[in-house]
Amino acid sequence: MNCASSTTEAEAMSVLDDGRNNALQDIFDTCPFVAPDPWDPEILNYIEVKYGFFNNCTVNERWAPITELRNGRVRILRAGSARKYECRARCVNYLDEEHIAFDPWKDIDDPNPFLCDFVQTECTSRKRTLSYIHMQIAEMRTKSVHSAFHPNVHIILIDSVASSQAIRALPRTVNFLTNAMGAVQFRKFNKVGANSRPNGFVMLFGKTTEPVMREMVDQEPIPADWTYSTYCRKYLDESVYIPVQYRNAGYK
User: Fold this and answer.
1) What are the residue ranges spanned by the domains of the chain?
2) What distance in Å separates the CA atoms of residue 102 and residue 93, rounded to the nearest whole number?
3) Three-state SS at 219
């Protein structure tokens, strides 16, 4: 049976093109970004506004460290307890992403402070051994050297903190950076990798190094742009690197 239609050939092609575009369109392209509210009522019951956690949280003494690192020196917190501990400590030094180096063990009564960012303590009493990794910022005093190079683009990265969480936990810091210093907060920067490195590649290179999993929206994974051999075994000079783009635009 033949059916008459008033649709022109141009209109038919337009409808066909729209259908093809919709078929190729990614689900995330149609999802408008709405800035999340850090103080959404659904989460207010789980946070304390001033400190970011409940004041009535009790510390489980069983898991609390028995040593304390302050000003580069280690001391025992339970020195007066019935259990007598013998403690030692050492620096843990960063070598690269996969390797660390340990300094020789020292008695915690050693008068020389630990001039490193990570200090491992180990305390033994009878058959019980407790170990803990303390952290500090060991500032190295260097001679002030005037440099003619003054960068005018700075990237301040707070690792392992969501954007909304930073606003809740560091409100004065975020307010100062954005309002007093004119900083731009990356509210649309999404976590697409397991840890810092894959997310850093996305931020600075615009390339994924891990598949983007989309089971929650019933979609197939998006394959990674770069393999391990690409980003760790080859020079990336020809790749688009955001800091270089800023430099080429005249920024320092």
Assistant:
1) 67-135, 163-248
2) 6
3) coil
Which of helix, strand or coil describes residue 205? helix
Nearest to 73 by CA among 136, 16, 13: 136
CA–CA gap between residue 207 and residue 201 (Å, rounded): 6
Tens digits of per-residue pLDDT, 181-209? 999 988 888 888 888 889 999 999 999 99
| Burial of residue 143, with CB atoms counted within 10 A of its CB: 0-12 exposed, 13-18 middle, 19 or more buried | exposed
Please spell the DSSP secondary structure of 1-54, one letter per residue. Answer: --------HHHHHHHHHHHHHHHH--GGGG-------TT-HHHHTT--TTTSS-
The answer, as to whether pTM is greater than 0.70, is no
User: Quick one: CA dihedral 57, 62, 63, 68, positive or negative?
Assistant: positive
Closest C-alpha among 169, 183, 90, 80 to residue 133: 90
pLDDT in tens, 57-85: 676 777 788 899 999 999 998 765 656 88
Select from 201, 199, 189, 196 the least CA-distant residue to 163: 189
Residues 162/10, Cβ–Cβ less than 8 Å: no
